[in-house]
């Protein structure tokens, strides 16, 4: 398949890499030459890692399927376009208007937005019936989940096509049948983030992350994950979702954003990353699992009750999208919250 990925940042280059591994030809576009170069270097680094681990054979062959471009007109013959630019509604809207004027009206256009409404974004394209959400998780090459989101105008055949495309790259698609803010995984994750931020009144960053890592056995602490996915990204998302009635406010996030402490990518966020991944130690004092997870569990129940995804899908989505050992409903049963 000929695929265009718009934006070579953390998500864009990772998505391009995954599709290239599975034999697709990729146009990787970024407006900024430096970002494109950085994205390509990250792809090479990642492919070499995968080769070391015996997961792929030929780095050069895969890499040669990726064509870096800095003129959007070059994507004209793409069969699928995936947008992965920063989480700013106006920016995404203008990209879709431009893309839609270049590709055929039969081209499938997808957004990798983690939270913005698909149906609102679809208003910018000529053919909204062929517009959908394909939401990957960071890092796309390692995380098995992709949320496939149906906008109000997405044709059912297009939604099913999205599910098939995800299966062809050996990822697990989770069908998100209603276009709700934050979809499934982030709706739940935002509740974990807001609970963690609220708990900062009584506990330190390390104490909260110690609970996440050593008791709940998450692969990363909650604040570590905020740094990893980007303080800037999370702050921008929090503003966009707030405008649409979903409150994910965290004063500390705003403070870090304003100081330019964007997390892993700049070496500082909640943690200091200048010497690599933070070493989170197990602390004596920590909040209870209920304090961190209760709101997230209620959110998961809401998703099922509103027919967004089934209980099994939501449970699996939290395991695969966040790398948790247990799904949100497994925790709910253990904590007798449900
Ligand atoms: N490509 C190839 N290899 C990679 C890689 C990449 N992009 N990223 C990491 N690796 C490698 C590491 O280099 C390391 O290799 P070595 O064993 O040779 O050192 C190996 O993978 C394991 O990495 P780590 O030892 O650093 O740590 P880990 O075992 O914890 O695994 C992880 C890393 C897969 C990222 C894991 O920590 C994890 O699952 N974290 C949670 C991530 C998560 O929740 N993602 C979703 C966030 S929400 C989101 O993305 C949505 C949104 O919209 C914001």
Automatic annotation (TrEMBL):
Keyword Oxidoreductase: yes
Signal peptide from the UniProt entry: none
Residues that coordinate or bind NAD(+): 7-12, 30, 87, 92, 114, 138, 265
Sequence ranges assigned to domain 3-hydroxyacyl-CoA dehydrogenase C-terminal in this UniProt record: 182-273
GO terms for biological process, alphabetical: fatty acid metabolic process
InterPro entries xrefs: 3-OHacyl-CoA_DH, 3-OHacyl-CoA_DH_NAD-bd, 3HC_DH_C, 6-PGluconate_DH-like_C_sf, 6PGD_dom2, NAD(P)-bd_dom_sf
Keyword Oxidoreductase attributed: yes
MF term (GO), any: NAD+ binding
Alphabetic keyword roster: NAD, Oxidoreductase
Site (Important for catalytic activity): 135
Pfam families for the chain: 3HCDH, 3HCDH_N
Residues of the 3-hydroxyacyl-CoA dehydrogenase NAD binding domain: 2-179
Protein's name in the database: 3-hydroxyacyl-CoA dehydrogenase
Organism: Sulfurisphaera javensis
Taxonomic placement: Archaea, Thermoproteota, Thermoprotei, Sulfolobales, Sulfolobaceae
């Amino acid at each position: 398949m000929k695929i265009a990925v718009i934006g070579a940042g953390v998500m864009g280059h990772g998505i391009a890499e995954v599709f290239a591994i599975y034999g697709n030809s990729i146009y990787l576009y970024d407006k900024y030459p430096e970002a494109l170069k950085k994205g390509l270097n990250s792809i090479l680094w990642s492919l070499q890692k995968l080769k070391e681990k015996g997961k792929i054979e030929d780095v050069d062959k895969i890499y040669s399927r990726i064509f870096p471009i800095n003129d959007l007109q070059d994507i004209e013959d793409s069969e699928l376009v995936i947008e992965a630019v920063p989480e700013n509604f106006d920016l995404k809207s203008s990209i879709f208007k431009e893309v839609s004027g270049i590709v055929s009206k039969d081209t499938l256009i997808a957004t990798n937005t983690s939270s913005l409404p698909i149906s609102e974004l679809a208003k910018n394209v000529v053919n909204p019936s062929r517009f959908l959400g394909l939401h990957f998780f960071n890092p796309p090459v390692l995380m098995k989940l992709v949320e496939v989101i149906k906008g109000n105008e997405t044709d059912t055949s297009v939604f099913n096509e999205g599910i098939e495309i995800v299966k062809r790259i050996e990822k697990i698609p989770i069908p998100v049948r209603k276009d709700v803010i934050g979809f499934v995984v982030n709706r739940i994750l935002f509740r974990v983030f807001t609970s963690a931020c609220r708990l900062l009144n009584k506990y330190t960053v390390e104490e909260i992350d110690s609970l996440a890592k050593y008791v709940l056995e998450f692969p990363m602490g909650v604040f570590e994950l905020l740094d990893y996915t980007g303080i800037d990204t999370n702050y921008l998302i929090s503003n966009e979702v707030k405008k649409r009635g979903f409150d994910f406010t965290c004063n500390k996030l705003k403070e870090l954003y304003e100081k330019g402490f964007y997390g892993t990518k700049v070496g500082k966020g909640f943690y200091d990353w200048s010497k690599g991944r933070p070493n989170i130690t197990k602390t004596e004092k920590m909040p209870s699992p209920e304090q961190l997870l209760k709101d997230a569990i209620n959110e998961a129940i809401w998703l099922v009750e509103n027919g967004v995804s089934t209980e099994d899908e939501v449970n699996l989505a939290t395991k695969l999208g966040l790398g948790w050992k247990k799904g949100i409903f497994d925790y709910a049963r253990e904590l007798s919250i449900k």
